């Protein structure tokens, strides 16, 4: 199952917490912003798109509990 939410990381703290949640996912995740599509578990990938605004987070084969961890950054 796929879920897509739009998220925005405003601070370094948001970035660190997001990466903690992403690396603990059992499924996979993609961060999509325009033509850019990166692995959401990649620190460098997320860092490269977070400064330019919000992005779509596609969670694939993740539980509802895992999805809810990302809701605090949803816009």
Give me the secondary-structure topology.
Layout: E1 2-7, H1 12-23, E2 28-33, E3 36-39, H2 43-50, E4 55-60, H3 64-68
Antiparallel strand pairs: 1-4, 2-3, 2-4
Architecture overview:
The chain has about 80 residues and is of the alpha+beta class. It has one domain: Histidine-containing Protein, Chain: A. It contains three helices and four strands; from the N terminus they run βαββαβα. It has helices at about 10-25, 45-50, 65-70, and strands spanning about 1-5, 30-35, 35-40, 55-60. Strands 1-4-2-3 form a four-stranded antiparallel beta sheet, covered by helices on one side. The two termini are about 20 Å apart.
Features:
75 residues, Histidine-containing Protein, Chain: A
Question: Which sequence of SSEs, written as H and E, runs from N to C?
Answer: EHEEHEH
Helix content: 25-40%
How many helices in DSSP terms?
A: 3
CATH class: Alpha Beta
Q: What is the strand tally?
A: 4
Strand content: 25-35%
CATH second-level architecture: 2-Layer Sandwich
Query: How can the largest sheet be summarized?
Result: 4 strands, antiparallel
What Rg, in angstroms, do the CA atoms define? Answer: 11 Å
Give the spatial strand order of the biggest sheet.
Answer: 1-4-2-3
CATH topology annotation: Histidine-containing Protein, Chain: A
The general outline is globular
Q: List segments where confidence is low: pLDDT < 50 over at least 5 consecutive residues.
A: none
How many angstroms separate the termini? 21 Å
Average the pLDDT over all residues and give the rounded result: 95
Number of domains: 1
Which structural class do the helices and strands define?
alpha+beta
């Amino acid at each position: 199952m796929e879920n897509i939410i739009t998220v925005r990381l405003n601070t370094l703290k948001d970035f660190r917490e997001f990466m903690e949640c992403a690396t603990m996912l059992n499924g996979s995740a993609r961060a999509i912003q325009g033509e850019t599509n990166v692995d959401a578990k990649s620190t460098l990938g997320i860092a490269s798109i977070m400064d330019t605004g919000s992005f779509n987070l596609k969670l694939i084969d993740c539980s509802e509990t895992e999805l809810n961890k990302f809701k605090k950054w949803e816009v």
